Structure formats: structure tokens, C-alpha cells
């Protein structure tokens, strides 16, 4: 069914090289038909055209943005978000592994997955690349919850056969077999996509990394999803475990895991060679600023990554990250970039949350913008949802200034509706 959405329409058009830009219609209309974007344009023109008799969802006064894309998040860590006082390796042992052990229970997985999907949608996130736990049923649960909403989710079972509690370990063989069965069951069903997910090099034996590489070659359309170069103790541990490798990234590369549709969370402690290789081989970085600050990991250098030609998406990394909100996450990304002396523009912040994420996931022909034919995942944002943001928004004179204040001050209170393939999900239609 065709309908029109009216409001201030803003998206980042396809990048013609150089810096991201904004396309804005202050009083704009988007034509949605059969779950896809057909056109956007000024209301004065489109409402007088052959479209004038279509129903209009009027969000005048609010912004209509593409759905936000979170390129790295752990749904089983929902309940340990904001756990005190540790850096990565201690945090994994103290909080993460015990929490993930509970996902051997299908009911825990289903209940958490349903909450998690709703929380993403409440925050305006319409696509996410999600880690499960080592348990195959944790992935069944997240895919089932996403399918119930027609949500485009990529997810995978964690592969982990050493250096973790026994009840969280698979083996090289069982990890391969279970992942393959999940790919066959879920990849390409509706909007769902599979991500082959070795947790990180320290928790996979060489036999498991080799098996994972074989799987990644056998299913090139799936994602590879892991962590790299997040924390200095972790990097030192990888050096000790893999003394023959030049770098942490090289461990993955040796097994064929640095390829198109590979997404590496963090990428803080990489060198020029690593960055060049990621760019040349089409792999992407997930920039996780709230996590990197919270776990004391370090400062990702976005400008350096882009100069090297890397694909970069933005990510919450809950539960190491401290917010489901991509607005909050973009605000922290801005602060990290400011520390590097290269502050992100408002257009780049929107780009990172939308089209850049889509491009990191090789989905930019389908999501991340309002090009004709794209899937109609979009959000309605009230930039004046609180007294302060209302005041700040009224003081702004340009769309860049309004967007920048929204990203810097905004959160879930500012997301007033979330649509997936043209159907409103939050608040429920
Ligand atoms: N490295 C390996 N596992 C994890 C995890 O669960 N969270 C983060 N932030 N880093 C990791
Ligand atoms: Zn993570």
C-alpha cells in the first residue's frame, strides 16, 4: 500500500568521494510503496502531483531520517551493561562469561532477544550486526525475534574453543557444524543474514580459526564478525599466543578471515599495514566509542582509518558499550574525533549512523538512505523532545546545527517512531 510521510527529510546521499553531505527537504515528503522508498521531494511539489490523493502520515515539525545501523552489538550482554571497574580481559571473566552461560537456556535467550529487539527499535536502530553466545539456540532466538518484526538483522553463534569457562566452549568441529547448520537455516531467510563469529583470536585454537576460514570461503555471502586490537593487554596476549604473526590482524588474515563482509570491532591498535590490508581486502571496522571509553581501551582514529580507505561503521558494542542509542554513540564518536583534532561534522555523524554502516555491511544498495528502491526503514525524530533540546533546536539556524545538537544531546526520548520496510513498529501501529 502506498502512502506519503511528511516532515523534515534528511539523509546522506551516496558519497561522490570526499566528505559526506546532507540532502534535506525542510518540508518534505517521501513516497513509500510496498515497503520501499519511491521518491523524496518538497511537499509543495509532491502534494500537488499525481500523489495528492494518497494517505499522509504527517510528522511535520519532526525529522525523518534513515533507520540507524549498529555494526557491532552483543545481545546476551544486555543485562551486564554498566558493570563496574574492569578492563577488557577481566571484564570478560568477571561479567561477560557468566552472563553468556545463561544462554544455554532457550527461555532466557528468547526473553532477552525479544527485549533486545524492542530496545533497538525504541532507539531508532533498524539494522544491527549482533553476536549471540556459543549456543546455537541463542542465534535461533535472536533471528526469531527479528523475523517477527521483519527486521534486517545479521547475527551469528560465537565460536570459542579455548581460554573461556568449559560450559562456553565448542570445538573446531562442532563450531563449524553448528555454524553451517545455522547458515543453512537462517541466512537469506526474509531479511536475516548470517555472521560467522569467532569471538577473538585468543579464544579460538588454530584448528578453529582454520575451520572458520574454510566456512568463510564456503559461504562468501555471509559476514565474518570478530574483535581486533581493542586493548593493550589483549594485543600482548595475541602476540604471545601467535608469536609468528606480524600483527593481530595477520592472525585473521592467515586464515582468510579478512575479506569483504568481514567486520572487525575496535581496530584501535592497528598499524598502517593493517589498515591498508583491511581497505584493500574490503573489510570494515566497527567504531565503538562508548565501549572504548568505558573499558579504558583507547581512542579509535576515524580520520586515519578513512585516509587509509577503510570502511567504517559506528557501533554501540553493548554491553561493553554503555548505550543502545546511536545518537549517544555518535556524540562519543565526536568527542573521540575531537581529541584527535579532527572533529566529525554533523553530516559525518549522520553518515556513520546510516549509509556508512550500510556500506560496512555491503548493504548500501538496500538500506542507509532514501534512494529510490531502497527498503523503507526510517525513523521519526523529534529534535525538541526535552526542554533543553527544544530550546537548543529553536536557537539553531541551519540543518547542520540542528543535527549536531540532536546527536550531541539526543537519546531514545527523541525517537518518536521507527518503521521497518514501511511498517511502523514503535510505538506499535
Ligand atoms: N573481545 C572479545 N570478546 C569481547 C566482548 O564480548 N566485548 C568486547 N568489547 N570485546 C571483546
Ligand atoms: Zn564486542
From TrEMBL:
It catalyses: guanine + H2O + H(+) = xanthine + NH4(+). Binds 1 zinc ion per subunit. Its EC number is 3.5.4.3. Its cofactor is Zn(2+). It is an enzyme of class 3 (hydrolase). Keywords: Hydrolase, Metal-binding, Zinc. GO terms for molecular function: guanine deaminase activity; zinc ion binding. Gene3D superfamilies: Metal-dependent hydrolases, Urease, subunit C, domain 1. One of its GO terms (biological process) is guanine catabolic process. Pathway: Purine metabolism; guanine degradation; xanthine from guanine: step 1/1. The keyword Metal-binding applies. Residues 63-422 form the Amidohydrolase-related domain. GO terms for cellular component: cytosol. InterPro entries: Amidohydro-rel, Guanine_deaminase, Metal-dep_hydrolase_composite, Metal_Hydrolase, Metallo-dep_hydrolases. NCBIfam families: guan_deamin, PRK09228.1. Catalyzes the hydrolytic deamination of guanine, producing xanthine and ammonia. Belongs to the metallo-dependent hydrolases superfamily. ATZ/TRZ family. PANTHER family: GUANINE DEAMINASE (PTHR11271:SF6). This is Guanine deaminase. It comes from Natronocella acetinitrilica.
Amino acid at each position: 500500500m502506498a502512502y506519503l510521510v511528511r516532515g523534515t527529510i534528511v539523509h546522506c546521499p551516496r558519497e561522490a568521494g570526499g566528505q559526506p553531505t546532507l540532502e534535506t527537504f525542510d518540508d518534505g515528503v517521501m513516497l513509500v510503496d510496498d515497503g520501499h522508498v519511491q521518491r523524496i521531494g518538497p511537499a509543495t511539489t509532491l502534494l500537488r502531483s499525481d500523489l495528492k490523493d494518497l494517505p499522509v502520515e504527517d510528522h511535520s515539525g519532526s525529522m525523518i531520517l534513515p533507520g540507524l545501523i549498529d555494526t557491532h552489538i552483543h545481545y546476551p550482554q544486555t543485562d551486564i551493561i554498566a558493570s563496574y571497574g574492569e578492563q577488557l580481559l577481566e571484564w570478560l571473566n568477571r561479567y561477560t562469561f557468566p552472563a553468556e552461560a545463561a544462554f544455554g537456556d532457550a527461555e532466557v535467550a528468547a526473553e532477552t532477544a525479544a527485549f533486545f529487539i524492542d530496545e533497538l527499535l525504541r532507539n531508532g536502530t533498524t539494522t544491527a550486526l549482533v553476536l549471540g553466545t556459543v549456543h546455537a539456540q541463542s542465534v535461533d532466538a535472536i533471528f526469531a525475534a527479528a523475523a517477527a518484526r521483519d527486521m534486517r538483522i545479521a547475527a551469528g553463534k560465537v565460536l570459542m574453543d579455548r581460554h573461556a569457562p568449559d560450559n562456553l566452549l565448542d570445538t573446531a568441529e562442532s563450531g563449524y557444524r553448528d555454524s553451517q547448520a545455522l547458515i543453512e537455516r537462517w541466512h537469506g531467510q526474509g531479511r536475516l543474514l548470517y555472521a560467522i563469529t569467532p569471538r577473538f583470536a585468543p579464544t579460538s585454537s588454530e584448528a578453529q580459526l582454520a575451520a572458520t576460514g574454510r566456512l568463510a570461503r564456503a559461504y562468501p555471502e555471509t559476514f565474518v564478525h570478530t574483535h581486533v586490537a581493542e586493548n593493550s593487554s589483549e594485543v600482548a596476549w595475541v602476540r604471545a599466543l601467535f608469536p609468528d604473526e606480524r600483527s593481530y590482524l595477520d592472525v585473521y588474515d592467515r586464515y582468510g578471515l579478512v575479506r569483504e563482509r568481514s567486520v572487525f570491532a575496535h581496530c584501535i591498535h592497528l598499524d598502517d599495514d593493517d589498515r591498508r590490508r583491511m581497505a584493500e581486502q574490503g573489510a570494515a571496522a566497527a567504531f565503538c566509542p562508548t565501549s572504548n571509553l568505558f573499558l579504558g581501551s583507547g581512542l579509535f582514529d576515524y580520520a586515519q582509518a578513512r585516509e587509509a580507505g577503510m570502511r567504517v561503521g559506528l557501533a554501540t558494542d553493548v554491553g561493553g558499550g554503555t548505550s543502545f542509542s546511536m545518537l549517544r554513540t555518535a556524540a562519543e564518536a565526536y568527542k573521540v574525533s575531537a581529541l584527535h583534532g579532527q572533529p566529525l561534522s554533523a553530516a559525518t555523524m549522520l553518515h556513520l549512523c546510516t549509509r556508512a554502516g550500510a556500506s560496512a555491511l555491503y548493504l548500501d544498495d538496500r538500506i542507509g538512505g532514501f534512494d529510490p528502491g531502497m527498503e523503507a526503514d526510517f525513523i521519526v525524530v523529534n529534535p525538541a523532545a526535552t526542554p533543553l533540546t527544544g530550546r537548543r533546536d529553536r536557537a539553531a539556524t541551519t540543518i547542520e546545527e540542528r543535527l549536531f545538537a540532536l546527536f550531541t544531546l539526543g537519546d531514545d526520548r527523541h525517537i518518536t517512531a521507527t518503521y521497518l520496510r514501511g511498517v511502523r513498529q514503535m510505538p506499535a501501529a
